[in-house]
Amino acid sequence: MEIDPRIKKIVDNIEKVILGKREIILLSLVPLIAEGHLIYIDVPGVGKTTLGESIARSIDVATSRIQFTADLLPTDIIGITVFNKETSQFEFRKGPIFANIVIGDEINRAPPKTQSALLEGMSERTVSVENKRYSLPNPFIVIATENPVEFAGTYPLPESELDRFMLSLEVGYPEPTTEIKILQNGKKLEAKDLNPVLSLNELMDIISEAKEVLVEESVLNYIYEIVRKTRMSKFIRLGLSTRGAIDFVKAVKAFAKIMGRNFVIPEDVKKLAKPVLKHRLIFKEYEEKFKDEIIENIVFETQVPI
């Protein structure tokens, strides 16, 4: 099976800017197709924001970027009610959250009160201001970046907010040959130079088609068994939530669609396990540094349907 041709247009466009990261690009598109949210958790300077912006620029939708800082206020994200002298009425001026794709750069630079301003929008697709509810555009996706907590000036994201991200990904350093090529040629294109290659209607069609992807009962049981083992593991303090399990199913269906299939296979589940689980599970104190190995062992020990 080949990548869905509509998705391939996006991938090819992004690869004009991001080199040697096709697998990460494909995984990054999963929340977009599954109507979820994405967070990149990695060290500075590996292209997290550039990748997020490249995705946003590749689709003909409304986009915005929020640079999170220590003095950012919730109203800087949601918007604010102001008095209009001409009409003698109060009116609501929408903030940057009112976009189809919202890039939240260095989300853990802002204090928890500001971080939580995203919560309602991420889960309900609405925001409340002074007892009024405002609907966010459809589709709506947050693509956030986060620097590891050991870097100065950062605030750990609360578990309730992390659980609202469908996937967490690490971009990582390029392969040596790719990085040498980048050093030789420099950056010829940046995210701002990209033009949209997919319309809103085409995106909505893909989203709709992904919902119809078949998950056979044996594969669904395979997913559930992985979920159950996260709750029983002696290395994990808090396993995957029901919301996380629902996102797991949505994610594998979206990935199958991206790969040009209308059915899910066990390899899709294996591919998505770590991105879905890693940021949601709460590990016991001494197991934090072994997150990847613990998840890999859970998947390895779970019987694959034939």
Q: Can you put this structure into words, describing what you see?
A:
The protein has 306 residues and is α/β, with parallel strands linked by helices. It folds into 2 domains: 1-204, P-loop containing nucleotide triphosphate hydrolases (Rossmann fold), CATH 3.40.50.300; 212-306, Helicase, Ruva Protein, domain 3. Helix content is 42%, strand content 16%. The chain contains 14 helices and 11 strands. The protein has helices at 5-14, 22-28, 30-34, 48-57, 75-78, 112-115, 119-124, 159-162, 176-185, 200-211, 217-232, 242-258, 266-277, 291-301; strands spanning 38-41, 63-67, 79-84, 89-94, 101-105, 126-129, 132-135, 141-146, 167-169, 236-238, 282-283. The strands form 4 sheets. Strands 2-5-8-1-9 form a 5-stranded parallel beta sheet. A two-stranded antiparallel sheet has the order 3-4. A two-stranded antiparallel ribbon has the order 6-7. The radius of gyration is 20 Å and the shape is globular.
Largest sheet: 5 strands, parallel
Total domain count: 2
The CATH architecture of the largest domain can be given as: 3-Layer(aba) Sandwich
Topology-level CATH name of the largest domain: Rossmann fold
CATH class category label of the largest domain: Alpha Beta
Helix-strand pattern: HHHEHEHEEEHHEEEHEHHHEHHEH
Which segments are poorly predicted (pLDDT under 50) over 5 or more consecutive residues?
Answer: none
Class per helix and strand makeup:
alpha/beta
**Number of separate helices:** 14
Terminal Cα span: 19 Å
Give the strand content.
15-25%
CATH superfamily of the largest domain: P-loop containing nucleotide triphosphate hydrolases
Average pLDDT, to the nearest integer?
91
Total beta strands: 11
Radius of gyration: 20 Å
Shape: globular
